[in-house]
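Retro notes
What went well: the complex prediction finally ran end to end.
Inputs used:
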Amino acid sequence: MAAVAPTLARRIARPGMLPLCSRPQAWGRAARQSPGLPRAPSLLLTQRRAFSNNKILVELDEGSGIATMKLKSPPVNSLSLDFLTEFCISLEKLENNRGCRGVIFTSAIPKIFSSGLDITEMCRKSTEHYAEFWRAVQEMWLRVYGSNMVTVAAINGSSPAGGCLLALSCDYRIMAENPKFSIGLNEAQLGIVAPFWFKDTFVNVVGHRVAERSLQLGCLHSAPEALRIGLVDELVPEEKLQDKAAAVIAQWLALPDHARQLTKSMMRKLVLDRLVAHREEDIQNFISFITKESIQKSLHMYMEMLKKKKG
Ligand SMILES: CC/C=C\C/C=C\CCCC/C=C/C(=O)SCCNC(=O)CCNC(=O)[C@H](O)C(C)(C)COP(=O)(O)OP(=O)(O)OC[C@H]1O[C@@H](n2cnc3c(N)ncnc32)[C@H](O)[C@@H]1OP(=O)(O)O
């Protein structure tokens, strides 16, 4: 982890300090640059700027204003505390860059978009650690779901639980049309429960009935099924995924920013405000839940099952 990251991890975690997400985001923030005419990003002769940390590669095409955040944390892009901290730092840099108007989230790891929350962060750790970890999970969601930028998930691999949440938090989801790739909020299969803001985000995408059934059964949906239930917006061949994502963002950016941003804020505000108002309570709920012996046993058995499947 880069030297700066532990400090930022503490900054996200320390209850006395302003969390990163206390800055106004999709609600109450000035509009970004005027969009001008829609332009195909690939036709532009523009400069690309790249920066990276240990776990995320970021490339910004300054002509189109579209950035790509590539998740690169082998073996499976699990969302550890370090990963989440670096993710939020990278996203904040883009949010603060007025030239950046859209972000594509994708993976640099073949066949895996993200394996979700890092289960080891939830096993036999201290209360302080659980609080820090859960605050970082909240921060990721608040930042992505509340972003003023156009966000597209280019899902080039499997994406269970927290990985699915990241995709669900975007404005649009495009998945590689490989039936072996799956996506869903499978928490129930681990013997744990998706918190209310995971559930709300899911309901807002697929509707109540589909979400209820899928959550109760802890379903992981194959790519074609994910399209059928509206969990993803379209499937494309894997080699076309990045171009398609850039084309979709360009289309969304053709609209006046203020109108799109205010509409996004109107659609998402209730759900965002609910977590912002109950953030500390949500952390305490997480701690009470995760420290139960029965839950620790379930997680342990699940990790053992993953290992057995391998060997
Ligand atoms: C009332 C309620 C109140 C409050 C709420 C309270 C609490 C709970 C909320 C918690 C919400 C949780 C959200 C989550 O995201 S939980 C994580 C769910 N993720 C999964 O189920 C995915 C598990 N992994 C897989 O299915 C496969 O690994 C995957 C991603 C399909 C890749 O398969 P493959 O390529 O074959 O790779 P391996 O399985 O061999 O894995 C390689 C290596 O990685 C380890 N690993 C995989 N996933 C995770 C993970 N999520 N966290 C940590 N480690 C992971 C795996 O064990 C292997 O390790 P090894 O050491 O054996 O190499």
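What we learned: Residues 257-277 form the longest helix (21 residues).
What to try next: split runs per interface for comparison.
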